[in-house]
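batch job 7 of whatever, protein = NUDIX hydrolase
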Amino acid sequence: MVLPGEFVPEAGSGPPVVARDAATVMLVRDVGGGVEVFLLRRVVGMAFAGGMTVFPGGGVDKRDLDASVAWHGPSAGWWGERFGCSESLARALVCAAVRETFEESGVLLAGPDGGSVVSDTGPYRGARQALVDREYSFAEFLQRNGLVLRADLLRPWANWVTPEAEPRRYDTRFFLAAMPEGQLADGATTEADDAGWQRPAEAIADWQRGARGLMPPTWTALAELGERGSVAELMGVERSVEKVIPKVVRDGNVLRVILPSDPAYADAPFSVDPAPGDEVRP
């Protein structure tokens, strides 16, 4: 698989770009004999990962740091321990995860109280667009509608950082969440041109035959999701989250993405000098 052009490092770009904090949520549901996950295909031409198939998510907004957000579930300190970050950043990451999932898929991991979840998000359609337009913060949205963020519906899964050689970098925390009963994932976002549910193994098979574009964090997560037979089994997994930073190495005129599990990772440099005609492949 050849990754998008923006993943090719730029010559003479200086020190690595500081990675922006981001959150992404793997929504899963039970189907006969396994699970499905909700996927979006980003619009071609977007500044980052255009044309790639991804999970709902995005960058942390400074207003996600609002400590007044109505909250139920594990504390921000608990999340900070799992993701190896400060309590304030952990709170913002959880808030961003729930907000971005609502904005990009219409799925709202919130309810009137800590024991319930919204079953019909239709009444919040206008608010969803207002959040996309940044008319107010997610904390204000919850307060206006008498809702509580359900942090207990999320599970920590992984932490991937864009390779240092790339011009756009994100420090992304991956969350897992079960699809709330009664809600619908619609993918009605201007950032995607296709959305839907698919078994993890089928999504990987599409990628292998060239029908999908997947970045290393996505196909790795899909492979992990496919190892479990039910949502309950996935949600019960206790994972130790470690920061993963892929590296890019030269193989002729091909720049290959390698992961920490590769024996070559330890000796590989964190950056390479690109050359005309280079391609980037896993």
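notes: The two ends are 7 Å apart (CA to CA).
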